[in-house]
């Protein structure tokens, strides 16, 4: 059940009740692709830094260690020792981005594994069966993420096929949720809106999938090459055609500025690899922009990554020490920055929820964006 508790313009804060606990939105989902956050961050750490939801990937877990093995181990929650909500991405994006050889048919996609080259088939039913074996809280529908840019005729055909696939996903999940040995019989399904930068195709698709009365709706196929302004415009035009009484998820986004702008356009859920990927390369997020701790100017800087930050890294260690760890190729350096970045994102979402609930989101967003542009000393 999804209940909006506060609204400020189009920005909304809600409570989304699931079998694995209530999610306060807007929320950032920490990306644990292969059932772990890259950067040696454990589920104990995730609890400490205020993580509400974790995202794992169907394609990767199907290839290794195998979804049937995870089902035997009691499902993904038990396997990774995480009792809060998990969203599983359908694997569609990875099929289209990682597989060098692939063939799209009405029944699904034939492709070669990026690990060992073996031939694999994945369609709507296969994706949903894998996600059911994983037992995630929220399953994503299997869709095609069309390349950017795409011809209008290609986009229309692709979106039509994605809609037909969504019907099959819903039917298969309903069947699996009724079986005796299903890990999570309350698994939810989110559909995905596609259409590239063609606003009319996006709106038409939003109307069609809204009629299916799903548990939530995602906007996919953005942040794939179009400008930020184009992305914001698509959200502005499309989100009003998705149900107001269901969560809206912007897939694969993004920077703190992207999140602030998308919240203002009615988005609830976000995920992105930036905090962990950039952290592993020495880049730390702060309220005044991003800093590169490998820079020589931090060599003798005894301040924390960000003054006043309550993350495990900032409470204890200096920029100079963390820089030393990175230069020495010590894993602890990466781990500390990833922890800081994930804490920063989770804390940002807390501030966003508070601003919406205090009816001052516009002022908060303006101030936050100005600070992010200022830069760090």
TrEMBL record:
Catalytic reaction equation(s): 7-aminomethyl-7-carbaguanine + guanosine(34) in tRNA = 7-aminomethyl-7-carbaguanosine(34) in tRNA + guanine
One GO CC term, this protein: cytosol
Active site (record annotation): 89, 271
UniProt KW keywords: Glycosyltransferase, Metal-binding, Queuosine biosynthesis, Transferase, tRNA processing, Zinc
Top-rank lineage group of the source organism: Bacteria
Subunit-structure text: Homodimer. Within each dimer, one monomer is responsible for RNA recognition and catalysis, while the other monomer binds to the replacement base PreQ1.
Name the record gives this protein: Queuine tRNA-ribosyltransferase
Associated pathway: tRNA modification; tRNA-queuosine biosynthesis
Keyword ATP-binding: no
Note on cofactor: Binds 1 zinc ion per subunit.
NCBIfam families recorded: Q_tRNA_tgt, tgt_general
Biological processes, Gene Ontology terms: tRNA queuosine(34) biosynthetic process
Family: Belongs to the queuine tRNA-ribosyltransferase family.
Ligand binding (substrate): 89-93, 143, 194, 221
Listed Pfam families: TGT
tRNA-guanine(15) transglycosylase-like domain sequence ranges: 10-372
Organism: Herbinix hemicellulosilytica
E.C. number(s) listed in UniProt: 2.4.2.29
GO terms of molecular function: metal ion binding; tRNA-guanosine(34) queuine transglycosylase activity
Known function: Catalyzes the base-exchange of a guanine (G) residue with the queuine precursor 7-aminomethyl-7-deazaguanine (PreQ1) at position 34 (anticodon wobble position) in tRNAs with GU(N) anticodons (tRNA-Asp, -Asn, -His and -Tyr). Catalysis occurs through a double-displacement mechanism. The nucleophile active site attacks the C1' of nucleotide 34 to detach the guanine base from the RNA, forming a covalent enzyme-RNA intermediate. The proton acceptor active site deprotonates the incoming PreQ1, allowing a nucleophilic attack on the C1' of the ribose to form the product.
The UniProt record lists the keyword Transferase: yes
SUPFAM superfamilies per the UniProt record, alphabetical: tRNA-guanine transglycosylase
Cofactors: Zn(2+)
Binding site for Zn(2+): 309, 311, 314, 340
Chain residue ranges for the region called RNA binding: 252-258
